[in-house]
Write a structure and sequence with these properties.
Elements lengths: L8 H21 L2 H9 L3 H29 L1 H18 L6 H29 L5 H29 L2 H21 L9 H6 L14 H27 L3 H4 L2 H23 L2 H19 L4 H28 L6 H69 L1
Length: about 400
Amino acid sequence: MNKIQLWTKDFLIGTFTNFFLMMNYYLLIVIMTAYAMDTFDSSPSEAGLAASIFVIGALVARLFCGRWIERVGRKRMLISGTILSLVMTLFYFGLNNICLLFIIRFLHGVAYGIAATAIGTIVTNIIPKSRRGEGIGYYMLSITLATAIGPFLGMFIIQYGSFRLIFVACTISAVLTLVNAFFLSVPEIKLTNEQLEEMKGFKWSNFFESKAIPISIVCAIIYFCYSSLISFLTPYAKEIHLMDAASFFFIVYAVVILITRPVTGRLFDSKGENIIMYPAFIIFMIGMIFLSQARQGITLLAAGAFLGFGLGVVQSCGQAIAVKVTPQHRLGLSNSTFFIFVDVGVGVGPFVLGLFIPFTGYRGVYMGMAIVTVACAFLYHLLHGGKASQKKKVVEETAA
């Protein structure tokens, strides 16, 4: 029997749209603290706020976008977000004080939140249900590539160019995002009167998809652990004198995700989520242990490989699970719920873990994250994995 086609024109356009959107984000995030300190002579705390206030704007946008996306229209919301993102990117060229930078960063975060929620909802709806794990895995590679290319390109441009050149690159990325969005064909969902009535008023169910919350909590904890990498890997590598190896850490991390993602996505679709999620937690834990004990470059890079596999699986399969358990007309809410939790995990992590570093050191924090990962595996079993096993058993018995 022939497989339902995955690599359609709209799937490719949607994936490239997300890639360019993420490139804009990662190009800026890696240089924003340095830009604020060098250009406006701001304090480290002010510079940190200039970077993190973007995430606050994105969280605010996601909170409301999930509720309104089906009423406004998925493509209209995507176009609105990408236009606003382009406008905010152009404002970076004329900034002359730190307060204005805070405002632009917040509004840029709002634009990003609108566009990211819309494109995520559009693409997950395009993917055939029978190939959802595989499709979302490939789609999420757009984020993986942007995570690897964006920071590398940003640091390269700063080393040999200027902040202004970064803004030029971001503008090109924003234009490409908008152009791709215009060419995307989006079948809109028509809500029934009952569904429209259900989404009126300020109630919990209009801001969060309850069925997506269990897996979102699990993924938020894993991303809390992941935040220790993006926040403290550089000072940790300096402390243990492995900066040369550390410069290749995220390249190894990204390559492993690129290699393993097609296999893990197909396993998700054919065998169910548990067969890949449980090993992912174990492998992520091993990566954290390797990282905590790294004394040679090869150990540090091995940690990057293990962590890339573990997080790559949890990232793509977690979103696939959130979509899988959600009714079609609430996919927008499901996507916004998932990424709100993930963003909170990444945002809270550096602050909380930073409080422990004076007492445990970097090695202690990474070993602690290995323990948290084990606890997270048990939590996954309680919130989703156990129920998924039971449902799979019932389906197999019925088929037999």
